[in-house]
Design brief:
The protein has 946 residues and is an alpha/beta fold. It is built from 43 helices and 15 strands. Helices cover 61% and strands 6% of the residues. The strands form 4 sheets. The chain has a 5-stranded antiparallel β-sheet with strand order 4-3-2-1-8, with helices on one face. The longest helix is centred in the middle third of the chain and has 21 residues.
Length: 946
């Protein structure tokens, strides 16, 4: 037998086995095999060449637990599979019929290594910490782990408290390496509204949602790699969740779903694993300690006693009592853990006697006719009765929380009425040791009630008539909490979201109670107003809109509520404006907000209303009116003591001037904002995007149009990295859509344009940001056409622009309409191109949307050149476009127009004049030598000089 005193390695084939460390390597990397399978390998490898009897193996591996040979065959088969032992090549473990198993590989014994190599595996996302020891579930964990190789949708089904979550979490950790760390745990226990199922999943994936249908965003993310989703506590949302899971599994081939529920989904492709109670010692006389501890229920009971009370040795006198307790608790894991938590106070005999008095023979006799979860309810009821008054009161009061909660929040809600803050926190600590409260596993200290415990405790709260009192406290706490969140403008967004975004479920729960018939609508209205910042920063504009509408309906037309009405109307206007774009109802809502702000002389909301009205005019193409509103904003901000208000005024005016075609003045304004950004210590209260990042993407646009190509591209590249790191979904859409995509497109770098367009589309689908998604699809179609595939790109571009509907009138769509006309030119459909360009020019002139006007007129000139009826007017259009570009300070458009005019003049035999025109324009460019239009200009100049 090999000497294991120093854990020397047993090497065979490509494998190395370290028995003492219980580690198996293949070619130097750890190889996962199940615990039982590894025990079998170690035992057989210690006796190489010797046939080990099956009964001896079972006795050694299962320690007298009654298992049949089927279990042994299963684990041997799993071992052979892990070793690649197919029987056709390498043979390591052989079956000797009628006798047992034999380890037949030749091996070498190596010295114990100084240190085992580590494997850097991405940790599972949102997955609770693994149990220190899994008892009685190794076989089912192994089956599920292996089953995930064959089945894409598996459900662990069993009664409450039986350990479904623990099994699923263990499987998740065990399979984490196989999924590259992409294992996500989604707890539906806190969810009370099934309409938020997809949002809950998205949150667990680290996504944010801003529309009613986030499913496309989930699909986009899940298609990016092998993923295991663990859905926990699904029984109360099955009707809504089942069709969603079917769709996810059907449309994402690399996805695996593992769910836990008290009943199956009854869905297509579902594989069900029923989790039965832990095996209990039989009811018979003379059971000794070894026989009792051969059963997992007793092992769990003793293990939990040791965890809560320190080292514990089961005596012969107590062994039958433990067997009885386990049987009485029907092998339900949570009930056993609760009972074990009381042994320190009452001893095993006292615990058994209390249990007997609580679970009468009559009750036990009717148990077969009662759902198994009532056994857990009885165990919880019994455990609850044993709690001191401070702990039982704390447990009841904490049931109003949805999901994890912080210690401070728990104290704020549960303390009072005879309980001090210190007593409440002490009670929480005690409840944690008794397994009635669990740490949530997050980086900061947070607690959670198991779903069954929360349900039980909430029923007790109802019985005692305390629900309204503590639901109110819960809502009041989170009203104050989110009021602080709104005022917290100095915390960086990622950190802000980790602090405040984690309480989204509690905000929803508080609002659901407040607007229920027995709730407090006044408190709900205040909480809604306080939570607006949360929804905006999570880009949850659709949810914000609906919650605010509910609050406004509750507010009614009562007098004396102007301030809260102003706050809610402002939020509704912004959620419509940023969530839906050209929403017709946004303007009157924001105008009412402005009237209320003027009446109350509220500076902040006056500026919010003016900002919203200005953006609304941008969205609706009224750029002259937008500039007037930008002037009003600047005047209102002029006397402000907050320098960020002045910066916002300059940024708003810079955008207005940019769209109006005054790039020089726009540059002055945006540079003034940029020069002041170092003074920006806090996030502006009235601006939903990141001011630093949004300033830079508009600067990049303006710089590009002014002909400063290198500066624009460098700025856009930095802006992408900053936007990606910032984590705000809507801000990153603007980073890509306002600068990165158009600048690379104009530069002729269509590979980069395609990359940015694809990223933008995936980002919008992941976060369900509809308007930018529409634009991204149309932009990507234009890229296809520009890369030479007009046959594919043109009809796709038309289709996507038609799909966009009224969104086509947003400023961001204007260049895509120009590209549609250019595509018709490439497809030799000149008349259709001219029709498009005339419609777009009419739009620009009617709306004063002048920034793109030189390019549109140039495209019209190119179309005219190809038209027999209009070719004589082409030169005039090129010169008109150049003149407008010069007046606007848009040297990029000027260069394009000069290039088109030069080609026309060459064709007309005016080469000398053509050279003068192009040289005069191109020499003004001091950078950007390698972008496409400059290369074309250089080639034409070289051709003319030759």
């Amino acid at each position: 037998m090999p000497d294991r005193s120093e854990d020397s390695a047993i090497s065979f084939g490509p494998f190395r086995l370290f028995p003492k460390s219980r580690l198996l390597e293949k070619e130097g990397s750890p190889l996962h095999v199940g615990g039982r399978a590894l025990d079998i390998l170690i035992f057989l490898a210690e006796r190489p060449g010797e046939v080990v009897d099956k009964r001896e193996l079972v006795k050694r591996i299962w320690a007298d637990v009654n298992v049949d040979e089927g279990s042994l065959r299963f684990h041997v088969a799993a071992l052979r599979k892990a070793l690649g032992d197919t029987g056709k090549s390498a043979r390591y473990v052989v079956n000797v019929p009628g006798r047992g198993y034999c380890f037949v590989a030749s091996f070498a014994q190596a010295a114990a290594p100084a240190a085992q190599p580590t494997v850097d595996i991405l940790p599972p996302r949102s997955l609770p910490a693994p149990l220190s020891k899994m008892i009685g579930r190794e076989e089912i964990v192994e089956k599920i782990s292996n089953g995930l190789l064959l089945h894409r949708f598996m459900t662990v089904v069993g009664p409450g408290g039986i350990g479904k979550t623990a099994v699923a979490v263990t499987v998740g950790h065990r399979r984490s390496q196989d999924f590259g760390g992409r294992v996500f745990f989604v707890d539906f226990g806190p969810l009370r509204d099934a309409s938020h199922i997809a949002t809950t999943i998205a949150s667990a994936l680290g996504l944010t949602i801003s529309s009613e249908d986030p499913t496309p965003g989930l699909l986009t993310f899940l298609r990016t790699g092998q993923t295991l989703l663990i859905f926990d506590s699904c029984e109360h949302v099955l009707d809504t969740l089942a069709p969603l899971v079917e769709r996810l599994v059907r449309e994402v081939p690399q996805l695996r779903v593992l769910a836990t529920s008290r009943e199956s989904f009854r869905s297509e492709g579902e594989r069900i694993f029923r989790l039965f109670p832990l095996d209990c010692p039989p009811e018979r006389e003379g059971l000794d300690v070894a026989e009792v501890l051969a059963y997992p229920a007793a092992q769990l009971f003793v293990e939990r006693i040791a965890q809560s009370s320190g080292p514990f040795q089961l005596s012969a006198e107590e062994a039958p009592l433990v067997a009885s307790i386990c049987r009485r608790l029907d092998g339900i894991a949570l009930a056993i853990e609760l009972a074990a938590g009381r042994v320190n106070a009452y001893g095993i005999a006292g615990t058994a006697s209390l249990l007997d008095s609580r679970f009468s023979l009559q009750w036990r006799g009717r148990r077969t006719a009662v759902p198994r979860h009532q056994t857990l309810a009885a165990a919880l009821d019994w455990s609850y009765d044993l709690l001191p008054p401070a702990e039982s009161a704390t447990l009841r009061r904490l049931s109003v929380f949805a999901g994890p909660f912080a210690p401070g929040a728990a104290a704020a809600v549960a303390a009072g009425d005879g309980l001090s803050t210190s007593e409440t926190l002490e009670a929480i600590d005690s409840l944690v040791t008794k397994s009635l409260i669990s740490p949530s596993g997050s980086r900061t200290l947070r607690y959670r009630l198991l779903d069954t415990t929360r349900t039980y405790a909430h029923a007790k709260l109802n019985e005692l008539g305390e629900t309204k009192q503590f639901a109110r406290r819960h809502a009041e706490h989170f009203r104050e909490f989110f009021e602080r969140a709104e005022a917290d403008t100095s915390t960086p967004l990622p950190e802000w979201l980790s602090i405040y975004g984690a309480e989204l479920d509690n905000a929803r729960a508080a609002l659901d109670w407040a607007f229920a018939p027995d709730g407090d609508a006044v408190l709900g209205i205040a909480l809604t107003a306080a939570a607006v910042t949360l929804w905006v920063r999570l880009s949850l504009f659709a949810e914000c809109r609906e919650r605010v509408k509910t609050a406004l309906a509750a507010l009614g037309d009562t007098d004396g509520d102007d301030r809260i009405r102003m706050q809610l109307l402002s939020a509704l206007g912004w959620s419509l404006m940023y969530g839906e774009g050209r929403a017709r109802e946004a303007r009157p809502i924001l105008e009412t907000t402005l009237k209320l702000a003027d009446r109350l002389d509220d500076k902040d909301f006056r500026l919010r209303a003016l900002w919203g009205l200005c953006i609304d005019q941008f969205n609706n193409g009224q750029f002259g009116k937008a500039r007037a509103l930008a002037d009003r904003f600047a005047n209102a901000a002029a006397n402000s003591s907050d320098t960020t208000d002045l910066m916002l005024g300059d940024r708003l005016m810079a955008v207005a001037l940019h769209y109006l075609g005054d790039q020089n003045d726009a540059r002055l304004r945006i540079d003034r904002v940029n020069a002041s950004l170092h003074e920006l210590a806090e996030k502006p209260k009235i601006f939903p995007l990141d001011l630093r990042i949004s300033t830079q993407y508009f600067r990049a646009r303006i710089l590009w149009l002014q002909g400063l190509a290198d500066k624009a591209q460098e700025l856009a590249a930095r802006n992408i990295e900053e936007g990606r790191a910032n984590g705000h979904a809507l801000t990153f859409c603007s980073v890509l859509g306002q600068a990165a995509c158009p600048i690379t497109f104009w530069a002729g770098d269509f590979e980069a344009a395609e990359r940015h367009g694809t990223e933008l589309l995936e980002h919008t689908e992941r976060h369900a940001i509809r308007l930018w998604g529409l634009w991204a699809r149309a932009f990507n179609a234009a890229v296809i056409a520009r890369r030479g595939d007009v046959t594919t790109g043109l009809p796709l571009l038309r289709e996507e622009l038609n799909r966009a509907g009224d969104a086509r009138f947003l400023p961001r769509f204007l260049p895509l309409l120009g590209e549609l006309a250019a595509c018709f030119l490439e497809a030799d459909q000149v008349d259709r191109g001219l029709d498009v360009i005339e419609d777009v020019l009419t739009r620009c002139n009617d709306r004063q949307e002048l920034w793109y006007l030189p390019e549109l007129i140039r495209i019209k000139g190119e179309l005219m050149l190809r038209s027999a009826r209009h070719s004589g007017d082409a030169e005039a259009r090129f010169r008109e476009a150049m003149d407008i570009a010069v007046k606007q300070g848009a040297r990029f458009w000027e260069l394009r127009c000069a290039t088109s005019l030069t080609r026309f003049m060459i064709g007309a035999g005016q080469s000398a004049d053509a050279l003068a025109v192009l040289e005069n324009v191109s020499k003004s460019f001091t950078e950007g030598a390698e972008f496409a239009d400059m290369r074309i200009a250089r080639d034409l100049i070289a051709q003319l000089r030759a």
